[in-house]
Write a structure and sequence with these properties.
Elements (H helix, E strand, L loop, with lengths): L1 E3 L6 H9 L6 E2 L10 E2 L13 H5 L3 H16 L12 E6 L5 H14 L8 H5 L3 H10 L5 E2 L7 H14 L5 E8 L4 H9 L29 E8 L1 H6 L7 E9 L12 H14 L8 E3 L6 H15 L7 E3 L2 H4 L6 H15 L1 E2 L22 E2 L4 E8 L3 E8 L5
Parallel strand pairs: 4-5, 4-6, 9-10, 9-13
Antiparallel strand pairs: 1-7, 2-3, 6-7, 8-14, 11-12, 13-14
Length: 403
């Protein structure tokens, strides 16, 4: 796996900061004049490791992130052009908004300098499929290649559909995940206008407060995660270091409201149960949930309700945390970084905390691992992701193939 995040863009730095409860949220210079002046800017992101000057100028930040994480993941996986036939390797990396910075920059050119000054590379810079296309070109991967977008559920859907493509026999290996880079003035203004964002400009480190009684909205972050998925037998044959197994997938839609979740959480429950059935597991097999936990008034209490409905009595024995308290909400990249967190939690025997949880909401009454990480031997994790439009994705990961 490869990551880009506000807590670091290499695995070790990211994990160290995460388990020590560090926040990646701070003031962002480009947002200084806006109603919301802070967010989670990616740290340690160095696209120059793989891209030259012309490539950097002709590739939006989101695509630079996708390519960097993709190549990091392939390096860790020791995936080379000889590992599989080119048409048996695919790329499916999603983004909620694509090249938002390019759109903003070129719209400014359009309105100030006129239509003839708009860059000829504008379209390939902002479309959401250009990131996976660049990854495929660099890798020589000629199997299924595309992007998808489902807002904050994007990376979850990408991983789920990549797994399904392998199961269907369309590929032996998929590079999959999600990435977002919309920490831009126009995007922040739009989210702020709909009152989705926290406005704690005086205390950004404590602004993302999942499950707290005084939470007032999410905090925008940028980054995500990209993974190499393979058939288990093929990964074993080639001696790959198998980080985890994607064992179960559940996908539903609320069909309720444009941006608000169903207050009963019915289809979230169904997605979780689908994933459990797909993984052939019982609710009691799950030890840790990386919650969607956005720090918005509606999401956190409804997700809590849905977890209680899906897990019954076992809900009180679950470890649940929202790492968005540290990273902010990476939108289309959220399930990417949070799947990486599930993998690392199982491999290291440590569950990361939910920070800023010093004033719990009585309606949010699970064990959210407040403030400090805990040691725990977890064999299976659930990662929840929900998007505007009511899309829900539940992914279940296992520590190894036998668990």
């Amino acid at each position: 796996m490869g990551i880009v995040s506000p807590l670091g863009s290499d695995i070790q730095t990211f994990w160290d900061n995460l388990i020590h409860g560090k926040s990646g949220i701070g003031h962002v210079q480009e947002l200084a004049e806006l109603p919301v002046t802070f967010g989670g800017k990616a740290q340690g992101f160095e696209p120059e490791r793989y891209l030259g000057g012309k490539e950097l100028r002709h590739m939006d930040r989101y695509a630079q992130m996708e390519l960097t994480a993709c190549l990091d993941a392939c390096g860790q996986a020791r995936l080379t052009p000889e590992t599989y036939e080119p048409h048996r390797i695919g790329v499916l990396i999603g983004s909620g908004s694509g090249g938002m910075q390019t759109i903003e920059d070129q719209m400014n050119v359009f309105f100030t300098k006129g239509p003839r000054r708009v860059s000829p590379v504008t379209v390939p810079m902002f479309i959401t499929n250009i990131g996976p296309a660049e990854c495929a070109k660099r890798l020589g991967a000629k199997g299924p290649g595309f992007s998808l977008s489902s807002a904050c559920a994007t990376a979850g859907h990408a991983l789920a559909m990549a797994a399904r493509l392998i199961q269907a026999g369309d590929a032996d290996c998929m590079i999959a995940g999600g990435m977002e880079a919309c920490l831009t003035p126009f995007a922040i203004s739009a989210f702020a206008s709909m009152r989705a964002l926290s406005t704690r400009n005086d205390d950004p480190v404590r602004a993302s407060r999942p499950f707290s009684a005084d939470r007032d909205g999410f905090v925008m972050g940028e980054g995500g995660g990209v993974f190499v998925l393979e058939r288990l037998d093929r990964a074993r044959e080639r001696g790959a270091d198998i980080l985890a197994v994607l064992k179960g997938v559940g996908m539903t839609v609320d069909a309720y409201h444009m941006v608000a979740p169903d207050p009963e959480g019915t289809m979230v429950v169904h997605a979780i149960r689908q994933a459990l059935a797909d993984a052939r597991l019982e609710p009691s097999d799950i030890g840790y949930i990386n919650a969607h936990g956005t720090s918005t008034p509606l999401n956190d209490k409804i997700e809590t309700l849905a977890i209680r409905k899906a897990f019954g009595d076992h809900a009180d024995r679950l470890l649940v945390s929202s790492t968005k308290s540290m990273t902010g909400h990476l939108i289309g990249g959220a399930a990417g970084i949070e799947t990486a967190i599930c993998v690392l939690a199982m491999r290291n025997g440590v569950v990361p905390p939910t920070i800023n949880l010093d004033n719990p909401d009585p309606e949010c009454d699970l064990n959210y691992v407040p403030e400090r990480a805990v040691r725990a031997d977890v064999s299976h994790c659930l990662n929840n992701s929900f998007g505007f439009g009511g899309q829900n994705v539940a992914l279940i990961l296992g520590k190894d193939a036998s668990s």
